Amino acid sequence: MRSRTGRGPVPLPGEACTGGLDGRRRLALIAGVSALVLLSVAGVAAAGAFTGRGLTGTGAYRVRSLAAPSRPAGPSARHRPGSSRAETDRTSCASVGHIGDSLSVGMVSAEALPDPAQRLAAQYHDVGVRLVRIDASGGRSIVEQLPGQLNGYRVAIGWYQAGFRGCWVFALGTNDAANVAVGSPVSLAARIREMMDAAHGEPVMWVNAETDVGSGPWSENNMRLWNNDLVAACAAYPNMRVFNWAAMVRPGWHLQDGIHYTSAGYAIRAQAIARALAMAFPANGQRSACVVR
């Protein structure tokens, strides 16, 4: 892919980054991460933290072709005894490719979520997805790249060229909004177009961005600009939906950096994304509005 930026990505707290940043801002990926940050954008501690799935690239977790586990018969634990899961609680997406940044790393990490049932893949399976692919990498954006990392666009293109067909979930934008805020010439709208082109018309659900940061590249205001462009893009892409995660977040879900989440926050986020997918592309085939709440 052609190079379209004149500067490197902006690192979130706890990241190492190249691209001309002052050495004082280059933080270790794992060692030296503040104790206040349970999960830095670099991911979690070691390659073995996610059983059977190594830590790859720059703190990336990759879950490929993870089939739905067999489940005992009976109602879901999240429903009243004797009730059945409504068709609208399940998705028509048999396969899902999820591409995310550090805010997705937290949803697949055994360190953040020791109970496998709370992690993202299990939540997708619970709404009817049979095959899940997840690539989550700390500091990821759509355009810029950290050393040893693929950006979101390249991951999507690689999966498509390798034969993946299904629904896409793009949990990206936090770092893109920050990179544009500090001067990237690639606009927010252009970044969205890149990912939509990579999806080749397949169903796409974006998870919008949210922080509890008052100023700087990752400010809440910059996230709102990104979210507004996501909604505006829906007019050009009938296959696109936007999950309004930003409207759902509550005080106390964030760590002190105002960007990453507590374990409880990641558990809620994983479940919410899966449920939003079922609303965006329901099993009953009904068309949803652009914004999923």
What does this entry look like structurally?
The chain is 26% helix and 13% strand. It is of the alpha/beta class and 293 residues long. The protein has a single domain (23-76, 83-292), classed as SGNH hydrolase (Rossmann fold). Strand 1 (55-56) and strand 2 form a beta hairpin.
What's the short story on this structure?
The chain is α/β, with parallel strands linked by helices and 293 residues long.
Name some characteristics of this structure.
293 residues, alpha/beta, 8 strands, 26% helix, globular
How is this fold's topology laid out?
Elements: E1 55-56, E2 60-67, E3 95-100, H1 102-108, H2 120-126, E4 131-137, H3 152-161, E5 167-171, H4 174-181, H5 188-199, E6 204-207, H6 220-233, E7 240-243, H7 263-280, E8 291-292
Parallel strand pairs: 3-4, 3-5, 5-6, 6-7, 7-8
Antiparallel strand pairs: 1-2, 2-4
Helix pairs in contact: 1-7, 2-7, 3-5, 4-6, 5-6
